[in-house]
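ARCHIVE CARD
CATEGORY: sequence design from structure
SOURCE FIELD: tokenized fold
FIELD CONTENT:
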């Protein structure tokens, strides 16, 4: 399993760095209403995307939260206002912000009820008319028809936790209506067999692959045999969904 605290030091350099962050931030901002004055980025990680959201919208008060102390420390150096918090139990009052974002978060939440809890918290913390923007189908975005995808296919988890229909269903239950979507390119995220091998060994794909027993070793053997070990396959396109909180919707359950 990936340790987000250990990963904080290398996260940006191994995840597309500034180019990917800038593209993500631009796509997010395209779904945030011009009149929004405050935004909370939950699961903000190192704050690289969060920082660019703030830079791209002067006048928007941007803060972040993350459950991993290592990530939160790096993010705090970038954006200042960062809270150490579990996205399923946000320590913020009801109707606190105009916008809330979750980029590359929901796919990591594999326990039953986790994604629903995050969506409920988003609805609670948003003001009526506020917008929640989140990535969906994150892992599936990496399926670009490559030989690496073929190697992964027998080990795929049956149902992604951030499946679009599932997130839409949860949103509707808490008064969040779909109001938009966007795609953005994952710059620098085209896989090579070698970085796929490293990912399997480090637990990067825990949200995507089921690798019991010796399955990880078998998958590494298959990946090792692929041609072009350092040749990047096509880059993924990530999907964002935007939800607006209905006016008059009762607040969801407060954190305990």
């Amino acid at each position: 399993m990936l340790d987000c605290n250990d990963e904080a030091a290398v996260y940006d350099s191994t995840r597309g760095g500034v180019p990917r962050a800038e593209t993500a931030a631009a796509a997010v901002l395209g779904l945030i209403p011009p009149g929004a004055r405050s935004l909370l980025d939950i699961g903000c990680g190192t704050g690289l995307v969060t920082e660019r959201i703030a830079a791209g919208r002067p006048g928007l008060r941007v803060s972040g939260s993350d459950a991993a102390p290592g990530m939160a420390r790096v993010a705090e150096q970038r954006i200042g206002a960062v809270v150490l918090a579990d996205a399923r139990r946000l320590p913020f009052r009801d109707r606190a912000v105009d916008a809330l974002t979750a980029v590359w978060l929901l796919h990591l939440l594999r326990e039953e009820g986790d994604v629903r809890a995050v969506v409920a918290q988003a609805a609670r913390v948003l003001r009526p008319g506020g917008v929640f923007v989140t990535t969906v189908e994150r892992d599936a975005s990496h399926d670009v028809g490559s030989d690496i995808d073929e190697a992964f296919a027998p080990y795929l988890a049956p149902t992604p936790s951030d499946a679009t229909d599932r997130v839409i269903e949860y949103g509707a239950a808490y008064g969040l209506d779909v109001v938009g979507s966007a795609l953005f390119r994952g710059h620098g995220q085209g896989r090579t067999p070698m970085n796929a091998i490293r990912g399997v060994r480090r637990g990067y794909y825990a949200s995507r692959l089921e690798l019991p027993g010796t399955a990880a070793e078998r998958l590494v053997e298959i990946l090792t045999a692929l041609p072009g070990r350092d040749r990047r396959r096509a880059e993924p396109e990530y999907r964002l969904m935007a939800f607006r909180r209905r006016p008059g919707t009762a607040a969801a359950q407060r954190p305990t």
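CARD ANNOTATION: The first strand starts at residue 38 and ends at 42. The chain is about 35% helix and 20% strand.
SHELF: design records, drawer C
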